Amino acid sequence: MTFVVTNNCIKCKYTDCVEVCPVDCFHEGPNFLVIDPEECIDCSLCEPECPINAIYAEEDLPENMNNYLQLNADLSADWPVITMQKDPPADAAEWENVEDKLQYLER
Fold first, then answer.
1. What class is the 3-84 domain?
2. Among 49, 57, 52, 41, which residue's Cα sits nearest to residue 17?
3. CA Rg value for the chain
4. Model pLDDT, residue 28
5. Are the C-beta atoms of 3 and 40 separated by less than 8 Å?
6. With a cut of 70, which residues of the chain have pLDDT below it?
7. Measured between alpha carbons, how far is residue 30 from residues 41, 67, 105 in Å?
8. Would you say the pTM of this structure is higher than 0.85?
9. Are 5 and 28 in contact (CB under 8 A)?
10. How far apart are alpha carbons 30 and 100 in whole angstroms?
């Protein structure tokens, strides 16, 4: 099993979660983070660190977000690993809890 970064992270990209990851499975894109399912050890440390509840255990993934499991796998193969917390985008708070942000994902 793995953890999955979902819709709420797009354009928010809070990085509180990356520093607690013991295996460095987070990867960073322009406006989104993903988890490499091959590296994730299911430790669950990242989930409570996300201030906007964008991370789910695979088994708890809402049905309407199942596509994020494959998206995390695909993008983690291309994006660099991130291990240190960074400042969020200046407008991150404006994007919190906005639904259907997939159209804004920058690859």
1. alpha beta
2. 49
3. 12
4. 98
5. yes
6. none
7. 25, 19, 8
8. yes
9. no
10. 18
